[in-house]
Amino acid sequence: MDTSIMVCLVLLFTFAASVVAMNSTGDACGVCECIEHLHAVICTGKGLRELPSGIPNDTVSLELGDNFLHEIPYDSLLEFKSLIKINLTNNLIEKPFGLPESVKFLHAEGNRLQDIKPIVKNGIHLKSV
Q: 63 CB contacts (<8 Å, ≥6 apart)?
């Protein structure tokens, strides 16, 4: 095989590998819109039935409204230390879930939550519920 073709193939495979590595943040950025410079993950109206995996750890705003989420596993959001705003409106959530202390704004109307006190108690720094 010609050397120039070999070099082109090596460059092509190297480029492809770097693209895969950049997109290896998990399922969230494949299913949702991830806006890197805003540290925002927008999953509004994606038909989600569970929290997507691979949400970037530096997410500041997480939009999960208008889906079919029944549950947010209690400790699944606690690892997001930069999370300030979370929108969970119009889902089917019934059980309380934990929030990191960084969350200031929680939008959860239109769910089946009977008691929001455990969520609010955990989110002691909330400015808006």
A: 40, 41, 42, 43, 44, 87
